[in-house]
Amino acid sequence: MAHVSIIGTGNMGQAVAGVVSRSGNSVELLGRSDAHRAVTGDVVVLAVPYGAVAEVIDQRRDQLTGKVVVDITNPVDFETFDSLVVPADGSAAAEIAAALPQSRVLKAFNTTFAATLASGTVGGEQPTTVLIAGDDADAKSLLAGIVSGAGLRAIDAGSLRRARELEALGFHQITLAAGEKIAWTAGFALVA
Amino acid sequence: MAHVSIIGTGNMGQAVAGVVSRSGNSVELLGRSDAHRAVTGDVVVLAVPYGAVAEVIDQRRDQLTGKVVVDITNPVDFETFDSLVVPADGSAAAEIAAALPQSRVLKAFNTTFAATLASGTVGGEQPTTVLIAGDDADAKSLLAGIVSGAGLRAIDAGSLRRARELEALGFHQITLAAGEKIAWTAGFALVA
């Protein structure tokens, strides 16, 4: 059984916590008032907005050594809604991996809206697929097992460099939902 | 009724020609041996590999003035399969628009495999959605009408800047199919 720490109690943090619970693994959910509590999970999900990630890393760098760290962020420029705020040839995941060289960083959950994680379906029509990118095969397998244990589909999306494409996909999906082209309960479904 | 010229007779050119025909619009399909024939369509689809686009533009620049030009390319670096060959902050569509300032350039059909355009479904499970990005609303409406007339879904994906995200999505979908995570008859379906 895996033990998962989730930092961030917003809708995404709660949705990922629900996935972990449904898969029969144990979960701790840490909010702002828990900054003094060390994370105890083997897997740590950074479920805070992109702009808050650096502070979390500063606070918890030592605690994250040797752990699987999951970046779920969509680093959208919410002022212009026209680009990401990370370098065009990089990704938030690449930045986090550079900041945490002793951790095994994965990108996941950024292409699934909270509602699709909770319901297990995209718009009630297709099973929800969690795309997982990363450079450590064992870490990806561990997270994939948690995801599939909750009844969702997990797909190995390739190396951590693919986080760039996952962030583009997440951004585009957000623009489509914000523009009312799709519902926040729906989005891109991956048909195999 | 629209008249559509398709430059390129490969599997994507043929698939887009099928869409145009099914929608009741007229289509001409031009191959390599037709370089001397001027395009007659109001809409011109560049259905050649990214590496061949510059030559087509050189040959046909004057013919493309005033027309709706549709870029369907996925400018993947097929040597490394690890990035696109266009600048990270740009897109093939942006390059084509810069080269054809007298045309109305759209990005479309790059996130749909040929088989999904032909069958009208993603893996037999969801209707095929064509994402259309561009800066000219009338041009987008014209193409959306052709697509929906063929029984497919058309979605306005935003300004031509969104071509960057559509090319990331197309690239990622190709890596998933090449890695046998999904079939070439399936891929990302958009659930509204």
From TrEMBL, chains A, B:
It holds the Pfam family F420_oxidored. The keyword Oxidoreductase applies. Gene3D superfamilies: NAD(P)-binding Rossmann-like Domain. SUPFAM superfamilies: NAD(P)-binding Rossmann-fold domains. Residues 34-75 form the Pyrroline-5-carboxylate reductase catalytic N-terminal domain. Signal peptide: none annotated. The keyword Transferase does not apply. Keywords: Oxidoreductase. This is NADPH-dependent F420 reductase. It comes from Blastococcus deserti.
